[in-house]
């Protein structure tokens, strides 16, 4: 079955610390991979995506993610977290043919001052 | 570019009434639009895929007679929640995929539906 796993429900980091949010997927073929961020009551903002090519992807707001095919992972990283990064983060995989997305359960990021 | 507008942003309706949510692609033509549902503090679940000019394809477990989807033009898809009940209260988000190019679908800002 196709699925996306975000094993961390909550993560708390101090402002200025580094961040890594984990994402693993189960899919029949290499899907398109996405990270979205959602603030409370808001829609989704795309942070970055992987379609093909370089497996280290740069996104907005200083985020990056690395696609590791052998581990079926697409972890999100940021070297220095800002208080404004506190939000819910969703990893998603999409079918290359239909662009239908399967979302992970989300990771809530809390930032300590 | 690639702006998707969803209207209304929030709506409160009485049980038994119907409510329509619009999803518009403002600066591109969307041959395919997707409707997702998000329960509080949960993830997004795909409800249905709509292609312009054809019937929507519903995901397993989604009642097509309750959630009516119409994609009559390349820039507009609507979701109508019929005979709404409190358990239909949720956050509904649409996304629209441009007809051209290998690009992802773009999300609207979502609609918070509360049924009282």
**Helical residue percent of chain B?**
under 10%
H-E string of chain B: EEEEEEEEEEE
Question: Beta fraction of the residues of chain B?
Answer: over 45%
**Class by alpha and beta content of chain B:** mainly beta
| Outline of chain A | globular
Count of helical segments of chain A?
0
* Helicity of chain A, as a percent range: under 10%
Which structural class matches the secondary elements of chain A? mainly beta
What sort of overall outline of chain B do the alpha carbons produce when their principal axes are compared? Answer: globular
Mean pLDDT of chain B, nearest integer?
93
Largest sheet of chain A: 6 strands, mixed
Find the count of extended strands of chain A (DSSP E, 2+ residues): 12
Q: Mean of the pLDDT scores of chain A?
A: 94
What is the count of β-strands of chain B? 11
Short description:
With 113 residues, chain A is mostly beta strands. Chain A is built from no helices and 12 strands. The model of chain B has no long low-confidence stretch (mean pLDDT 93).
Topology:
The complex is a heterodimer of chains A (113) and B (116).
Chain A: E1 3-5, E2 10-14, E3 19-21, E4 24-26, E5 32-38, E6 45-50, E7 56-58, E8 64-68, E9 73-78, E10 87-94, E11 101-103, E12 107-112
Parallel strand pairs in A: 2-12
Antiparallel strand pairs in A: 1-4, 3-9, 5-6, 5-10, 7-8, 8-9, 10-11, 10-12
Chain B: E1 4-7, E2 10-13, E3 19-25, E4 30-38, E5 44-51, E6 57-58, E7 67-73, E8 76-81, E9 90-98, E10 106-107, E11 111-115
Parallel strand pairs in B: 2-11
Antiparallel strand pairs in B: 1-3, 3-8, 4-5, 4-9, 5-6, 7-8, 9-10, 9-11
